[in-house]
Specification:
heterodimer, A: mainly alpha, MetI-like fold, 67% helix, B: MetI-like fold, two-stranded parallel sheet
Amino acid sequence: MIRYIVRRLLEAIPVVILTSVLIYGILLIAPGGPTARFAQNPRITGEQIAAFKHRWGLDQPIPIQYCRWAGICNPDGEGLGIFISNKGLPNILPEALGGGDNGMLHGDFGFSIVDGRPVTSVISERVVPTLILAGTAWLLWVVIAFLTGVYAAVRRYGLFDSALTVFNYVGFSLPTFWLGIMLIAVFASQLRIFPASGMWDTRTVPAFGTDRYWTLLGEDPGYVLTDLLRHLVLPVITLIVVSIAGDSRFVRSSMLDALNQDYVRTARAKGVPEWRVVTKHALRNALLPVVTNLGLEIPFLFTGAIATETIFSWPGMGRAFIQATNNYDYPVLMGILVITAIIVISANLLADILYAVVDPRISYG
Amino acid sequence: MAERTVAVTADLTPAELEQLLLERPDYEVQLESLNQWQLAWRRFRRHRLALAGAALFLALVAIAIIGPFFVHYDYYEIPHPDELVYAGRPPSWISGDWDPPLLMGETARLQRDILGLVVNGARLSLVIGVGATIISVVIGAVWGGVAGYFGGWLDSVMMRIVDSLLTLPILFLILVAGKFLGRGDWPSVMLIFGLFGWLGLSRLVRSLFLSLREEDFVDAARAVGVSDGRIILRHILPNTLSPIIVAATLSVAGVIIGEAFVSFLGFGVDITQPTWGNVLTSSLDFLQQGNWWWAFFPGFAIVLTVLGINFMGDGLRDALDPRARI
């Protein structure tokens, strides 16, 4: 088992490298590159652009640029020295072992071109809101998809099953972003039940993540949490409807498969009560494919977050990604993409491992 | 007793055939010979939802082709300083004002006729959806076909690449590519979706090739000296068409939704050429003024199209590939 996990981890490394090269490639073949945003500005001269390029190392060959960004090359060295850190050891090592102290491998994603802040702090303040949104959505999504799917399978062709089928078709055809807009139109603009945007009420609650926010949370947790919940409702619904539509159908068919197995018939023939047949015999086997699916669907939460966070002005990673793309903020963009890729790849890995744990028939070979 | 003949075809299941023979023993049964596609059409025809979906989709295609000659989306008049008009007039059937007739109302700010935008936007949305799918089917079929046919280390390398690309958050890459490489015209958006969309298809094609290459007819072709390229294209590929068609149909729906989102964010087709996505771009800002029709109708067009395509895809799956039921 441990060998299997280690092997999968080792296999994930080239994937992360491939991802970063791919993203770097897309950004670099873009016409103009990071200096494109200066092109329309008449106050910026050619020399200034050249100086800018030199300062950010953009005048170097692309492999060197990538190597420096990744933290394999020493930004100040020349010749073979570019691979050697200032302490005389390979730059790829962590700083404590005599390696370099900058570059992605050393946890340094550089600085935002737009406001000069470290990319790590730009991203870290966005991670928590995204996790709150995506985590709530994931939990609800799993529970609802599971319950509806199982119930529809047990009462096959019943009223609920038919209603669920209709919902599956329609929900699966909804564009996430449009569903969000429609929810705002109905519940925020017309009925005014839920707020249309943001994560907190700007009039009564200080910005999320600031000290004053935590103080208020300590003083009046009821108010702050209710406020957060109210802001969560519409984005969470937007995020999960499409996924539930796909997944409850999946759970249903998986459960139907299990209910048609011989061992279920055997259990029924032995006189096991129906609820026990369902919960004990069928459900556990139906769970197998469902569990794997759960991990595999985590990436959708992140891609879905782009739509949801943009529509609802939720201060998370998805919105930061859109802002960075609009601002040509290359370092932030690279940082977000690499971190998202790592999260997604880990989720896949977790799904595989979980599958191997749940299903004893899978060999770890 | 006069001999009568009835043509019993694939329309009947074995059970129905038996029933018919029991009821009318005087009937002589003649089997009609049908090729694979005729059989598929018969199965598809029975699927009522699929027929409705196909009809809906074809109607939208027809509207996309002919509609723009009749309906325009330009301004009805120079924007009026009056606040109410600036916010866009509601659909005529709500306001009761049929001069000019506005079936879907107007956009705020520029006061464009939304019906015109939806009809004109249908063109690019459908062209991008179908075009990008064709690109990804070609790439996916070639990639998966080569990997599945030759197998061995080539297969491992090619599929490893696909597996790793599949673990990526593709939408992020599409957005970055749209912003940095796209030029805001429809061919570049179509190309980007085509280039990022073939991964799943290549896996499907590979798995089909893996099993088909062991078949006797492939051995036979090889024995008489047919080249690898010809075996792939003429002998194996035609046998994989059914699942590919089903997957491609569903992929069109996916691209239409994806394109709408990317263009909505301003990273796809720019707003000089309407698509169902970019038409929605500023609609969010005017919901508060009560202009819901702007946000509603273009999105509703997407839902109808995607629903139609999904129904059609389900029917096609049952018709072409009866074994692969979910």
